[in-house]
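Sample entry (255 residues):
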Amino acid sequence: MINELFSSINKQTIAFSGILIAFALTCFFLSKASKFLPKDQGREFAHDGKLSAGKPRGAGIIFILIFAVVSLLFAQLTTEIVAYIILVIIAMITGYLDDASKAPWGEYKKGFLDLLIAVAVAFTYISNNGTQVVFATTGYSPKFVDNNIVFGILTVLLVWVSINVTNCSDGVDGLSGTVSMISLATIYIMDFFLNSDEQFDYLILVFVVCILGYLWYNATPSKLMMGDAGSRSMGLFIALAVLKSGSPFMYFFMA
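Predicted structure, serialized as tokens:
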């Protein structure tokens, strides 16, 4: 959007400004808005879960919203990219509602919502990119995947698994965010060599910087928890990033 308003300014300058703003806004709003977040009650299944009792949780709502706003303002938007941003927000909302709920949502309820999001991702991706898959390491393109139904089912599985394994990695301070940031940075580097979608690659940079802002603000001793609002959104975005690389099977090696 800003690229269109300030066409006379170098695009790289605008893009870099967006990245700096994303980091600054994440740190600022985490420090100012965390007091409004729900408080953790201490989870028995989490590492040192009882020690987290009383900490604000659901901080993912802050850095995911900042990611969305900065992306909408500074990225070169397409209908596909806007759809992905909306789906990431939806994943964040479902996670935050669980974070804010006095009684944790059941696994079936969350699993069904994940399924709906995964189906929407599959439909959006296939509509805009087709079903061709390439193995990044060999250049081999398997024929059995080049079918809307097969590709759709595999995409739904990828998104559903990515959301849940990323969510499961949350609970130890900094673990989920750090691992997700490394995975996304690795996918970004792969995209550089594959000449993948540059417009989506910019979203990867913005997303990584927002996670970095969260980790920077929340360095030991941690002050708050990202909750499902953050971890579920990160899992979805990792799946989107590896899909847009054109080599979704690389998820096994990079995430």
